[in-house]
TrEMBL record:
Sequence ranges assigned to domain FAD-binding FR-type in this UniProt record: 15-119
Gene3D superfamilies, per database record: Nucleotide-binding domain of ferredoxin-NADP reductase (FNR) module (3.40.50.80), Translation factors (2.40.30.10)
PROSITE patterns: FAD_FR (PS51384)
MF GO annotations: oxidoreductase activity
Entry superkingdom: Bacteria
Name of the protein this chain belongs to: Siderophore-interacting protein
Pfam hit, one: SIP
CDD domains documented for this protein: siderophore_interacting
């Protein structure tokens, strides 16, 4: 589906458009770039909840590509928020854009379909992902009450992934798992979580890994109301749609 057609559809559905301006760029690690944007006042309250995301329309080579990113560290007083870009290989349009973006550059964004994480103050949480979903996991950790029990399992596939910062939380246990074929090591780590069936599970990673974990978690007794699954990227494929 072309980007122009997608934009027409989103307009018909009254999805609001915004123009974002980069005001700061930081290399967090060699594979992770953090871009701070100034956003319109009408946008910030709508992306403040954990895991909220928006579509960025990334220009590249005369085309435009849509890609979804989590909004983190929303600061209504300063009028800013941040997105973090994992620099994937093969490199796609978003990675190329993130490597070269500078303060003052602008990008279009659309807010449509963003679903915020709803915390359960009683049930322990399992957060399972990888560097691509780490910003969303960090947004959950930042918002969780201090007495919340959280188990965080993160799949690492490149040297230096463990250097990506995970937000501190007094009730969180964080474990990095070395990636292998089809997420088998991550699946074993999930299966080893004590009293797994009692957890509220939020899982986001590569689509092949997600398919396996969805089956395993359902088999472990995780009900539909306690399971959120998101495919964030596809192995070997540059994400986004050209227009």
């Amino acid at each position: 589906m072309g980007t122009r057609f997608e934009k027409v559809v989103l307009k018909a559905l009254r999805a609001p458009d915004f123009t974002l301006t980069a005001v700061g760029v930081t290399e967090v690690t060699p594979r992770l770039r953090r871009v701070v944007f100034s956003g319109e006042k009408a946008l910030l309250p709508r992306i403040s909840a954990p895991t909220s995301w928006l579509r960025l329309w990334i220009p590249s080579g005369g085309a435009v590509y849509q890609r979804a990113y989590t909004a983190i560290d929303v600061d209504p007083d300063a009028g800013t928020f941040a997105c973090e870009f994992v620099l994937h290989e093969p490199e796609g349009p978003a990675s190329r854009w993130a490597r070269t973006v500078a303060p003052g550059d602008t990008v279009e964004a659309t807010l449509f379909g963003s679903d915020a994480y709803v915390d359960d103050p009683v049930t322990p949480a399992l957060l399972c992902g990888d560097p691509a979903s780490l910003p969303a996991i960090n947004s959950i950790l930042s918002a969780a009450p201090a007495d919340r029990r959280l188990t965080v399992l993160l799949e690492e596939s490149h040297d230096g992934d463990r250097d990506m910062p995970v937000r501190d939380h007094p009730g969180a246990t964080v474990t990095w798992v070395k990636a292998d074929d089809n997420g088998q090591a991550l699946a074993r780590a999930v299966a080893g979580v004590p009293d797994l069936a009692a957890h509220r599970c939020w899982v986001a990673a590569e689509t092949g890994v997600i398919k396996r974990l969805r089956v395993d978690l359902k088999a472990a007794g995780i009900g539909k109301q306690s399971l959120t699954v998101r495919g964030y990227w596809i192995k070997g494929k540059a994400m986004g749609t050209a227009g």
